[in-house]
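In practice, a research group might receive sequence data for several interacting partners and want a quick structural hypothesis before committing to experiments. The following worked case mirrors that situation: the sequences arrive first, and a predicted assembly follows.
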Amino acid sequence: MTTTTLSRSKRSAADLLFDLCNTVFLLALLVLTLYPVLNTLAVSFNQAQDTVRDSTFLWPREFTTLNYSTLFQDGLIYHAFFISVARTLLGTISSVFCTAMLAYTLSRKDYVLRGPISFIFIFTMYFSGGLIPTYMLIKNLHLYGTFWVYVIPGLIGAFNLIVMRSFMEGLPESLAESAQIDGATHFSIFMRIILPLSLPVIATIALFVAVGQWNSWFDTFLYNSSNINLSTLQYELMKKLQSANMSVGGTAESAFASSKNIQANIVTPASIRAAITVVATVPIIIVYPFLQKYFVTGLTLGGVKE
Amino acid sequence: MSVTVERVKKHAGIKKSRSKWSKLRSQKALMAMSIPFVVYVIIFAYLPLYGWMMAFQNYKLGSAMLDNEWVGLANFRELFQDENFTRVIRNTLAMSLINLVFGFVSSIGLALMLNEVRKIIFKRIVQTVSYLPHFLSWVVAANLIMNVLSIDGAVNKVLVSLHIIKEPIMWLSEQHYFWWIIGASNVWKEIGWSAIIYLAAMTTIDPSLYEAASIDGAGRFRKIRHITLPGIRSIIVILLIMNIGHILDAGFEQQYLLQTPMVVDYSETIDIFVLKYGINLSRFSFATAAGIFKTVISVVLLLAANRMAKRMGQERLF
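A structural hypothesis for the assembly, expressed as tokens:
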């Protein structure tokens, strides 16, 4: 009796130390992860001249929404926001639908072309034409300078296809078979049976595609940089970032420094950048908690390889 | 219909292929739902390979592909003699290796620590927060990183107040810090996300192993070393092998967005090189040659890794 309590108390002392260290480490990680985000939020709400004098910590010292109102006086940001939302919605819906439809055909074990088509797609995961040939292709297809360049080239990704296919293969085959006996076509089986049952995997893939669409700036940079009407939020932010990088100091300070001289200037490039950063991040933060439960499933599903 | 059946019976030797054809004919609906996408992928993924011819030509903008002067391997020769290109390869490999080592160590470490947390709520909070940066774009992340690393940013303030450095450092203007900044920001952005897969692997470890170990008097560290780590060994190996094929993908966005004119010598990767020569300077043939070099090396590495995986008895990749 005494020995067990003794060993238990001894064990718990070592355990306690371990847990303490572990908790401290993880708390430090929390701070390190969140600090940059919260600091930028504080800068975006802090009066710009005050930020120049001394950087904020976690809380705006002199609260103002001037950075945001200045940002939105520029009609371009509204438009860029609209384009970002449009490409995210359209790109996600079309991509998820097409990927699911193709995945359904490839999940049918009796489909003769199942093997060859799967191979054609999987091969693209490891092999690509590269930047320049793709750029030339987009030009030759007359997608250059259009909105469709955001949607069409990314319609089907091989990785997403495999994830969806393996999920659909896990569904009971008898469901589709009995529908087939009742005279349902493949398309209606897909629409009415497979699609509703695949909701978890569809949510996961939709999340991946939507985040990719929302975050993308390179295609705007490459194909639509001359067409300001098709600019996206991330691209506008990227331009602001580049102009800060290329200026004399090479870091954010130069932006501060140049604005120090102009007293009339009530917002600084840095505070505007902070404001756009927040605008570009908020939609993700909003959907994040709702989709969080799905992406762990998604990632483990992705681990299933054939 | 019956005629076909008879015929099939007669030519039993070609029965299989014939039945395949007739089966295919009955699968018109499936074909209608999949063939358009095959056409799509051929156009968008395979047709660009036609452009590879540019690398062996002296391509002039606006001319038809086959009308150009053929120059053989001249572009490749020039590429390997180019000092910029060798430097770019050095940068790519250096940053790739830093990312690989940092990434593996940090995410396995985080998974181990999270696995030891007893309070479910705390574990969930840490996880939720640590995934978050994965969903931010590199543009946003680069902005945040620039803020933190600026002259009066948090990093300098902390280091100065701890008397580790005397004066604030312009982190992003110093060549020698650039690789490590990329490595650290990669860890910051992806640590939580890449830990997911290890955590998932840890849940499959038999709990009775831990019980047996504690009866034998093993402490937490010993259990981690002798049970948890061996338990996720196969997933570590497979991910390591998969990463070998991407050794020339040090990334593009981070470097492109965080680089300043002062650090160009250390920040340019192969992808930035291709962009710069191809799109900005319109040297299409030269840039395509660099792109081909990267793809070919990647595929060779991947095939080698796949073979290695097979030999080691691991699940192969394809």
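Before designing any experiment, note the following. The two ends of chain A are 54 Å apart (CA to CA). Residues 2-45 of chain A form the longest helix (44 residues).
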